[in-house]
Amino acid sequence: MPQSHDSKSSHFLKEIEQAIRIANCDVLGDRLKPINKDTILPLVVSVARLRGDYLAEAFRIAGADKGKVLDEAQIALLKKHRMAYEEGRRAFEALTHAIDRGYVELSE
Fold first, then answer.
1. d(CA 25, CA 43)
2. Ordered alpha helix ranges (H), the chain
3. Most CB atoms within 10 A, among 9, 11, 38, 88?
4. Residues 48 and 66 in one domain
C-alpha cells in the first residue's frame, strides 16, 4: 500500500531536519570551541557594550539637540551604533539558537 502524502511529507521533513542538524553540528563544531560560561562571556560583554554605545549616543544627541531636528551626521552616527548593536544581538541569538538545537558542543 502506498504511503499517504502526509506520511511522505513527514518522513521527508524529518530527513531534512536530520541533515540540517548534521550540517550545523559539523560546520559549527569546526568553527567554535566548546561553549561554556567562560567562552560565552566575551560575546555577552561585547553585546552589552554595543547596547551601551547605542544608548549613550542616543542620550548624547538628546541632550545636545535642545529640541532641534537631528542633522544627517547625528542620524548616521546613531544608526551606525544601532546597527552594530543589532548585529551583536543577532549573533548572540544565533548562538543561543544553536545551543538550544544542540548544534554546538557544551563544556563545563
1. 20
2. 5-31, 37-65, 72-101
3. 88
4. yes
